[in-house]
Amino acid sequence: MHNRSDQLTKSLLRDGLSLVSAAETEVEVLAATQKIDVYSVPDPARASERAAMGLLGELSAEPSLFEPFHGTPSLRQVRHCLRKQLTWHHELERRARSAARSVAPDEDTDTPPQPAVDFPALVVIGPGRPETVLDAYRCEPVQARVYHAVPGLVMRVVVLAELPRTRATLLLRLLGSGRRLREALTDLAALPDDAWEKSVATPLLVHFRHEIQEPTTDEEDDVSAEIRAWFKEYEQKLRAEERKEGRDEGRAEEAARSVLTALRVRGIAVPDAARERILAEKDPEALERWLERAIVATSLAEVLDELS
User: Fold this and answer.
1) d(CA 211, CA 234)
2) Confidence (pTM)
3) Which pLDDT score is estimated for 60?
4) Which among 275, 273, 266 is positioned nearest to 294, based on CA atoms?
5) How many other C-beta atoms can be found within 10 angstroms of the C-beta atom of residue 43?
6) CB neighbourhood size of 177 (10 A)
7) Which end of the chain is more exposed for a tag (fewer CB within 10 A), N or C?
8) What is the mean pLDDT of residues 236-256?
C-alpha cells in the first residue's frame, strides 16, 4: 500500500486492536530488512471487549501479524509475508531464551530449555479474491468469508469484497476502497456517537482521507454527499473543541500570571518549582482560590498550603 492510504490502513488496524491488545505498527524484524505492518498480542483481561469487536476481535484472539494490501495480494507477496511470520517467530524464541537466561543466569547447562513460544498467526487482508494464494495453500472458508490455510501455516486470508455488510465486519471494510468503502463509511456514520468504531475510525479518517482523492461516478453522488456532510460536521466540531481548549488555556494562563503578580506585589518570593506549578495549573477554581489568598497572604504557604 502507499503513503497516506497505507498509513490510514495501518492506523485503523493498530488503534482498533489497541482496544483489546498490545498492538504495534512497523515492527522491525531483526536479521532481515522486513517490517510487520501491525503486530497484535491479545490482552487476556479484555476478552469480553474483544468478543464485542466482531470479526477483527476474532482475528486478534491470538498473537497475530496483520498484513493489509491495497490490491489483491499475489503469491509472491504472500510468500514475503510468510517469511516475516517465520522470521518473527524465530526472533520471539530468541527473546524468550534471553529472558530465561536473565532469570536464571547461574544455571549449569550449555543449552537451557527452549521456552514455549506461540507461533504467531498471519492475517493477510486484500480487496479481492487471491485465487493463486488460496489454491497454493489449500485455503478453505471458515467464517465470514475468511479463509484458513493448512494448519501448519497459521495463515488467514480476508477478502474484503466478500465480507457481509454487517457491523461485525465494519472496521475491516473501512480498509477497502471505492463502493465498498463508501458503504462502510455510510454504515459508520449511522452508528451512535459513542460507538467504539467511531472513536477509533473517525479521527483517523478525517486526518488521513482529506488528501485522498478517488474518482467519482454518478451512482455514488448521493452517498458521497452524505459522507462529505458527515465529515464536515465532525471537522467543525473538532475545530470548535480546539478553539474552546485554546480559550480555556489562555484564561488559565492569564489567571496564573495574576496569582504571580499578586505574590510579587505582596513581596513574597516564589521559587522556580512553585512558579512552574502555578503556571501549569489549568483548574480555574484552584487559580481563583489562589488569587484570593495571594491578595492578603504574607507567605507562599498561605496560598499553596494544600500542596505542602
Assistant:
1) 16
2) 0.66
3) 93
4) 266
5) 17
6) 14
7) C
8) 70
